[in-house]
Every structure is written in structure tokens, then in C-alpha cells.
Amino acid sequence: MATHHKKMDPFAVEGDFFRIKDLLEPEERQTLERIRSFLADKVEPTAGELWARSESPLHLVDAIRDLGITGIPGDAPGITARSPLLSGLISMEMARVDPSFATFYGVHSGLGMGSIRECGSDEQRQRWLPQMVEWRKIGAFGLTEPLVGSGTARGLLTTARRDGGEWVLNGEKRWIGNGTFADLVVIWARDEADGQVKGFVVEKGTPGFTARKLEGKIALRGVQNAHIVLDDVRVPEENRLQRADSFRDTARVLKVTRGGVAWQAIGCSIGAYEAARAYAVEREQFGKPIGSFQLIQDLLSRMLGNITASQAMAVRMAQLHAEGALSEAQAAMAKMFCTTRMRETVAWAREVFGGNGILLEYKAARFFADAEALYSYEGTRDMNSLIVGRAATGISAFV
């Protein structure tokens, strides 16, 4: 008896298999749908092209501003409060379409604005945040160095020396997203006087500050990462973040943004899964869709399991954040777990495509490559694991 296979809508079964979007209030769902439309209309059509050319989506700055989702109440007048769950789902949706775009947005709104919000004085927040909400000033976050990645808490080599009413910064930073074009770069440096890490806002055009675009990346090519050199860069005391007195203050920023990376990892996983599923129901071998074979269905099921488990953790993380009860270790676990499951998921998605999985014209290739950057930044899996281990045992295993 002949078997007839009905042509299916390639996005009939989305990666949100347990429908976590249904947890949103109706107005929040409308906001999310509006953002999904923006991503589909403005971001997705050029994502692959920008990735291939290694260009950031600066042409979308005005459109991003008009979305009205940058910042939180207090950053500027008229901003509507968003729940941590909605904010997380926005990050997820961005990465579902383009992890590079999600990172470009997150560096500005999360790391850049978050540093000023968490560690700046009232005057500094009023001076910079309204302009950043409007995307008239784009931000970046300079922590990682050429010789210091995981050891930033204790080993920063960039120095800051007080000289009257100014600070003199010397050193290098590396992997600084948005760093080649940012108007405001938050530089974290060790104070020569007391050995503590402090934050400084370096404005574009400051003498002695140079930023060179890192070339040859194989992941997040739509993000311009910079190698920054600080050669006797003079920053006025009024640009020193007044509430950043040690690395503990830097960690307050990272706690929130690590949670955001967990959501981005879920989005990257969903994007890869949805691309693989669409391919599976259309690609035919031996006279029928490959999605009818047991091995392919097993891969899709595993992907959905990883995605759903990660979403469940992220939803609980959002609830704890809303209650003001989210710990550094919980955020670290979410980043560790979700990026690890993402790495598995995008590999399975690429496998569904066979040889086509390494071609940029098939979306899985981009998600597969971009996952490696999400897996590494905002603390490697190993470093986040040790944060969790310290919380579990009460004993620090950091060297």
C-alpha cells in the first residue's frame, strides 16, 4: 500500500514545545510578537549576508530604538517595566533568528548599560543612560584581556593610576564586542594604589585609545570584536564609575548578563532545531522525506528535550530574578547548563543536514558556528561550574 506524506508547514512545530510563551501576560505576548515580526522582517533577511561579510547591523539602530525595548524604568522617562521572563524571551527570540544580532544588542543594553546602571552614580546614570536608551550612544564592555580571560577576578593587567583629577589607564583588552564603533566603552582596570578593580567610561575619540577589529572569526561574525590598546589614556574622575570599588561590583553586572546568555543559548538551539526540522520534512531520500526515518526523528526529539529542559531552568531563573532572589551561582548554573545543551543541539541539527550542514545557505551552519562563542563568553563552562561548586560545598576551588 502506498503511503502519502502530507506537505507540512516547516514551522508548524516550533522549538517552544512546552509553550512557555503562554506564561506571559497578554500584553507581554503582544510585545513579543511585535519583536518577532521585526526580527523576521528586518534581521533575518540579511543575517547570513552580514555574517559572511563580518559586519554588525548598524543600519538597524533606528529601527531598534523604535521598538522601545531598550532600558528599564529609571534609565529614561517613559520606559515601561518588563518582567525578567519577557526580557529573557526577547533574548531568546533574537538568538533564534541571529545570535550575532542578539549579542550586538546584548553588549549594548546588558553589559554596557548594565555597568553604568549598577555601578554608576545618579549623575552618571542620568548623563549616559537616556542617550543609550535612544541608541544615540552605543556601549561596550572591556573586561577580557589578551593574557587574562578566566582569571579576570584576580589577574587584570590593565592598570589605572590616579593623577590629580584624572585617571591614567594603560593596558590591552581583547574580544570586546562593539568595541570598534562604540561611543562609550566601560574599561575595567586594577587601581595601582589599592589593587582593586574599578570601572571607567572611556568616550570615543579619547587620545591613546585605539580599537582594532579582530579578523578571521568563525563564530558570531556579525559582531565586531575589538583588540583595544590603552596607552596613557586619561579619563576624568567624573568618568570613573562611582559604585565600582572591586571585582564584586563587576560580578553584579555579570550575574544578570550570564542569565541573558542562557536565554541566548536556548534561542540558538531553537533556531538550529527549527532549521533542521524544516529541512527534514522537505528533503527526500529513497523516495520519502528524511523526517520519516527513525534516526532523524530521534535527533529532533533529543533537540527538543535539550531545549525544553533549558527553558524550564531559565523560566525558574526569571522567577527568582523577579523576586530579587537570584544568586550568582544560580545564574552561573543556567549559563553552564544551557550553553552545554546548546552545543549538543546545534551539532545534532547540523547532522540532520548531512554535507549541506556546513553551507552558510542552510541556517544550521551559522547556528552551529555561533554556538561556540556563546559557549565560551561570559565565563566558560568550567569557570561557571566552579562557581556552582563553591556554592554547593562552601569551598573555593579557584586557583
TrEMBL record:
Its cofactor is FAD. Residues 140-233 form the Acyl-CoA oxidase/dehydrogenase middle domain. It comes from the Bacteria. InterPro entries: ACX4-like (IPR045008), Acyl-CoA_DH_CS (IPR006089), Acyl-CoA_Oxase/DH_mid-dom (IPR006091), Acyl-CoA_Oxase/DH_mid-dom_sf (IPR046373), AcylCo_DH-like_C (IPR036250), AcylCo_DH/oxidase_C (IPR009075), AcylCoA_DH/ox_N (IPR013786), AcylCoA_DH/ox_N_sf (IPR037069). The keyword Oxidoreductase applies. SUPFAM superfamilies: Acyl-CoA dehydrogenase C-terminal domain-like, Acyl-CoA dehydrogenase NM domain-like. Residues 251-392 form the Acyl-CoA dehydrogenase/oxidase C-terminal domain. Residues 26-134 form the Acyl-CoA dehydrogenase/oxidase N-terminal domain. The keyword Oxidoreductase applies. Gene3D superfamilies: Acyl-CoA dehydrogenase/oxidase, N-terminal domain (1.10.540.10), Butyryl-CoA Dehydrogenase, subunit A, domain 2 (2.40.110.10), Butyryl-CoA Dehydrogenase, subunit A, domain 3 (1.20.140.10). PROSITE patterns: ACYL_COA_DH_2. Keywords: FAD, Flavoprotein, Oxidoreductase. PANTHER family: ACYL-COA DEHYDROGENASE, ACYL-COENZYME A OXIDASE. Belongs to the acyl-CoA dehydrogenase family. This is Glutaryl-CoA dehydrogenase.
